[in-house]
Design goal:
Helix content is about 25%, strand content about 20%. It is of the alpha+beta class and about 55 residues long. It has a domain of about 35 residues. It binds zinc ion.
Length: about 55
């Protein structure tokens, strides 16, 4: 039993991590690109995608 692509997509799509407090926030990508997304905990707007693995 492992993770499958659909489950991973559900877990990681539209989920961003705050760079300051590392709180998870679920926001649509459009909102992030528009700069309208902010961390729910510290209100900062510096978010990064959840997965930052260098897979290439
Ligand atoms: Zn934060």
């Amino acid at each position: 039993m492992g993770t499958f692509p659909e489950a991973e997509a559900r877990l990681y799509n539209n989920v961003y991590i705050c760079r300051k407090c590392e709180g998870k926030t679920r926001v649509p990508i459009g909102k992030v690109l528009a700069g309208a997304a902010s961390c729910v905990r510290c209100k900062c707007k510096q978010l990064r995608p959840v997965r930052k693995k260098n897979k290439k």
